[in-house]
Every structure is written in C-alpha cells, then in structure tokens.
Prior knowledge:
Elements: H1 3-8, H2 17-47, H3 54-79, H4 87-105, H5 109-131, H6 136-156, H7 158-161, E1 167-168, H8 182-205, H9 208-218, H10 220-225, H11 230-256, E2 258-259, H12 266-279, H13 286-304, H14 309-323, H15 327-345
Antiparallel strand pairs: 1-2
Amino acid sequence: MTAEKSETVGKPVAAGPAAGRRGALVRAVTAHRGRLAVAALLAVACYLPFQLVPFHVFQLTMVLVYAVALLGLNLLVGHAGQISLGHGAFFAVGAYGTAIMIDRWDAPHLATLPVAAAAAFALGLAFGLPAVRLHGLYLALVTLAIAVFLVPLLKRFESVTGGSMGLTLGKPAPPAWTGLAEDQWLYFLALAVAVVTFLLARGLLRSRVGRALHAVRDDEAAAEVMGVRLSFHKTLAFAWSAMFAGAAGSVYTWVIGFVSPDSFSVTLSITLLAGIVVGGLGSLAGPLLGGLFVMFVPSISQDVNEAAPGVVFGLLIIAVMYVAPAGLAGLAARLARSTMRILRKG
Length: 346
C-alpha cells in the first residue's frame, strides 16, 4: 500500500452539495414542522369548499363545529384530568341560547356567539364549584346527571324553547360582496370560530393556567404542595370547557337552522367523549381528528349495517383504540417521527 493510499484510509467521504442541501432542508422542516403543518392545513381548508358539493361542505362545517366542542372537552379531560359525561348539555346551552335570541329578540347571528359562550361559561362555573370535591366515577355520575335532566327541562318550558317541536330559524345569509353560496359562507364562519378558539386554547395552555392544569392532572398532592389552588383551577377548567362547547353550540344553530331537545340527548355527550379519546387526549390536533370521527364514523356505521349501527360504531372505536392507544393524534405523531428519522438517515 502506498503512502498516499494509507493517508486516505479511514477518512470520511465529504458530503456533496446535494447531501448538504438535503440535510439543511430536513433540519428546516424539523424546526418548523408545526407551523408548516398548520399553514398547509389552513390552505387546504380554504380551498376545499370551492371544490366540493354543498352536502360535503356541510359535513366539513359540522366537523369544525364538533372540533370546537371537543377542544373544550380536551381541555377538561386531557389537560386537567377531570371527566365529563355531560358535555352535550353545555353544547345545548349555546345552541338554545342562540336560537332563543334569534327567535325571540331577532338578534343578529354573529352577536349571539359571545352571549351564548358567556352563558355556557357561567353554567360551567356553577356546576364546577360542587364538582371539584368529586373524583372518578362520582364526578362522571354528576356530569351525566346534567345531560339526563336537560332534555325534559327543555321540553317543559315550551313557551321559550318550543318544547318537543323545537325552534326553526333562518340561517345567516352571506354578504353580497363575498360572492359565496350559503353553505360556503357557513363553512367559513365555522372555520373562523375554530381558528380563534384553537388559538385561544393554545395560548391558555402555554400560560400559567395551563401549567397549573397539567400539574393537577399529573399529581394533585404535588400540585397543592407547589402552591396550585386545586379548587380554583378545576372550576376554571369546567368553565372554559363549557365556554368552548357553548360557542360550538351557537355555530351549530347557525348551520342547522333548527334546535330540538332530542338533538342533545345523553348520546351526544357520550359520542363527544368517545370522539376526544379516539382523536387523542392532551393534543391540539386531537379535537380536529375527533371531529372527523364524530361526524363520519356514525354515518359509515349506518352504511355498513343499517340494523345495528351502534354495534358497528362500538367495534370501530375498539379497533381504533387497539391500533392507536394514544388516539389518532398520537398515531400521526408517531408516523411523523418515523418519517423524519428516515429522512435524516437518507
């Protein structure tokens, strides 16, 4: 072996320009993958209503409505470690609050949203005060009771709520300058509300309140030793959760144009809880994936077996949880990490 050859043995081969550019691209994507994913998602969301038929636009609008409701439930269950089987009741408060304001007082549709959200917040605060002393199954039973007595209560006050017949309302008309059809206008209203509520939830979870909620979820005793006021933050979690559900209920009324007590039965609360567990607890992507699940899986179950859609729905939940114990958001994160590892090695 010559001296020149011996000097080169064991030295790494210099990376070429193409490999360097690829590595820089991977590092840039890794550093900003969250922002890139959100930007891509918003771009697709703004593009879809111009390409789909009205019924499919309506379905996507309802996905956004459910995503806002699940965002509140995720705050309570995924981040605060509490449980609620009565989330549909707060959804109904927002829906009926909006319907009554439009029907009785001829209020503008957009003006009803903050009022309905505030009413749900106040109700969540009222129910959160006694609920903070309960845990586990006891808390689940109390929240379930809220959903159980809501339907007969709505039917009883017929002069206000319309009783069993419900209330039929007009939908918000698109301004002429937008050039949008009614279904597209409703979609973009729901999208705007979803974006605002997701930003609000993100800011809340990154604040001291969010850190306190995580401490309560992980270990209440340790959180109390560190100075976290358990009762205050648990009650606040109920109130915030109810507020998001009330906002979703308000948009639901705009989109459907009709409310009735039977639309807000216990089944809705259980379906919402299943949706956030399947979507992914403790993740901001979980509510959106859960909204897709809540909207499309029941209809798929109905198509698979019209005689027993509940059985098919339950089996699909079991299958999803078997494949993705951390929910669909956890599965997506795991796939993203695997993809980035492959790109780095390549």
